[in-house]
Amino acid sequence: MDDQHSLEGRGAVSDPPVLRPGQPVGDALRAIAGHLLSEAHDILEDEGREPAVAVHDIRKEMKRWRAMLRLLSPFLDDHNKRLREDARTLSRKLTSARDAQSAIDAFHDAIDGTLHLPPTLTPGSLITIHQRLEEWKSKNESTIWDDETHQQLSDYITAASYQVSHWPLQITFQDLADQLAITYRRARKAQPEEWETAVADDLHELRRRVIEHRYQMELVEPAWPRLGRIWVDEAQRLRNRLGAFQDLSVLMHLTEPHQPLATWRSRLMPLIAYRQAEHAKSAARVAARLFAEPPKAFRRRLEALWDAQGA
User: Fold this and answer.
1) Measuring CA to CA, which residue among 34, 60, 75 is closest to residue 173?
2) Which of 35-42's residues contact partners 24+ apart within 8 Å by CB, and which partners?
3) Which of 131, 143, 151, 225 could tie 3 with a disulfide, CB 3.0–4.6 Å?
């Protein structure tokens, strides 16, 4: 986002709607939600987009959309609760397709990140593992990214767009700051007490909260572009580290008995464990910076920056 953007540009790809001090917050959020759904629709309508790219892009838009629904849920009626539930169901349908790519990414991470260690896999094994992962990916894409799923997503976006156009959002920035602080507190609280012994489920939950926080903070970024961009980038760095840890967990699962990579379990596990420890260590450093201040101080900062922009 850019602080030159304005609500007047809601129909242009290069000029999406944003929050601005002095303009009605509810109207801006309604416009932003409509633009988000329009972008998701464009992804579905792009026939030239590769399936893997389409799955990645639509999952990203759905995460952004779900974060916004979570943020605005206290201000919407019960009908919009169904929007969140259906969005979650559709997103889960795409998870296995994304998991295949995640396993490939994790495999490269495990190999490239341990080149300084004694090799545990032969060149032939590396080629065979990669081939098996690509086969698994192709199978998942053909069974998940099909006409039925495509139509379900399209129908959902159409219905959601209609509901958004009728949202009665009568809220102030103070109301919004309250909800942003709640998300911040949830993410901050989700941090493990001991990063060195944190398990995958705990870090997966933290990652979910960080993703939610990251996309919600993107909404207010234009109101304070310099600090906002730094904040969103920092949240994205944390998300990336936690995501890499999760991808390695997906790869680890594929080494279990009767799974595609079971043959190489003893040789892959040390590499996976090493890289997970590295990602957890880096994530701990980023989280310490991102969640340094208490939620009340975080909320006061948001309001102060907003007021300063409107002065």
Assistant:
1) 75
2) 35/10, 36/61, 36/64, 36/65, 36/68, 37/65, 37/157, 37/160, 37/161, 37/164, 38/161, 40/65, 40/153, 40/157, 41/154, 41/157, 41/158, 41/161
3) 225
Own/partner contacts of 135-140, CB < 8 Å, gap of 24 or more, are 135/260, 136/100, 136/103, 136/254, 136/260, 137/52, 137/97, 137/100, 137/101, 137/103, 137/104, 139/100, 140/96, 140/97, 140/99, 140/100
Q: pLDDT of 262-305, one tens digit each?
A: 999 999 999 999 999 999 999 999 999 999 999 999 999 999 98
Sorted by where each begins, the domain ranges of the chain are: 1-94+145-170, 172-311
Query: Tokens for 168?
Result: 């009665």
| Terminal-residue alpha carbon distance, the chain | 22
Half-sphere exposure of 181 (CA within 13 A, CB side): 17
What tokens appear for 248 in the block? 């390695």
Neighbouring CB atoms inside 10 A of 68's CB total 21
CB 39 within 8 A of CB 59: no
Residue indicated by tokens 């995958």: 200
Distance separating alpha carbons of residues 246 and 118, to the nearest angstrom: 24
